[in-house]
Amino acid sequence: MNFKNALLDFDREEAEEILMLAFKNGNKTDLVPELITDVLTELGDEWERGELALSQIYMTGKICEGIIESIIPEEMKKNRTAAYTAVVTFNDYHVLGKKILYSILRSAGFNILDYGHGVSINGIIKRLKSDKIKFLLISTLMLHSALEIKELKKEIEKQGISVKIMVGGAPFIFDELLWKQVGADAMGKTPSDAINILNQWIN
């Protein structure tokens, strides 16, 4: 069984054994990008094509997150990106999309802060300042929540906060120009999109 199949079978023990074998073969440095990130990206692409259920994406991400915390050496955890990235469900209480994104980004090595759900503009502004966030990822399910991102963007500019905004969720999939209308810097349809965009911003 390979790593991908172990994840799709929700077999954490088998998936962990495969990664431990990679450790024994001296591939610690390449483990995350080659075995975890690439597989999760592939699964995300399959979900986008309708070949996998959203629940499968969520569970595979959670399994990978748990495995990383349990077997990756401390020195590799220290090499994660600094915690200048945050994810939030803005003025919305549909949290599954955010949970999936959070789990997969952590699995891919990002040290990301979870701002929760139903957070107001003032609440986000306060956290952006205190945490010195550079990249804010916003997940929405409802159109009215997506449209309110425009007001958040205005307040961010008014406060002089330097932060890039990436948006995602159903409203932005249905209307592929909506992200520009609300003032976001990028839109990701899948977690793999988010990984690629963040890497571009960081580099």
Describe this structure in words.
The protein has helices spanning 3-8, 12-24, 28-48, 54-71, 74-78, 96-107, 121-131, 143-147, 149-158, 170-174, 178-181, 191-202; strands spanning 81-90, 110-119, 135-140, 164-169, 186-187. The chain has 203 residues and is of the alpha/beta class. The chain has two domains: 3-77, Methyltransferase, Methionine Synthase (B12-binding Domains), Chain A, domain 1 (Orthogonal Bundle), CATH 1.10.1240; 80-202, 3-Layer(aba) Sandwich (Rossmann fold). Helix 4 runs parallel beside helix 6. The radius of gyration is 17 Å and the shape is globular.
Task: Tally the beta strands.
Answer: 5
* Helical amount: 55-70%
Number of helices: 12
Please report the distance between the alpha carbons of the first and last residues: 35 Å
Supply the CATH class of the largest domain: Alpha Beta
Strand order of the largest sheet: 2-1-3-4-5
SSE pattern: HHHHHEHEHEHHEHHEH
> Which spans have pLDDT < 50 for at least 5 consecutive residues?
none
Query: How does CATH name the architecture of the largest domain?
Result: 3-Layer(aba) Sandwich
Tell me about the largest β-sheet: 5 strands, parallel
CATH superfamily of the largest domain: Cobalamin-binding domain
Radius of gyration: 17 Å
How many discrete domains?
2
Content of β-strand: 15-25%
The best one-word shape is: globular
Q: What fold name stands as the CATH topology of the largest domain?
A: Rossmann fold
Instruction: Report the average pLDDT across residues.
Output: 81
User: Which structural class should the secondary elements be placed in?
Assistant: alpha/beta
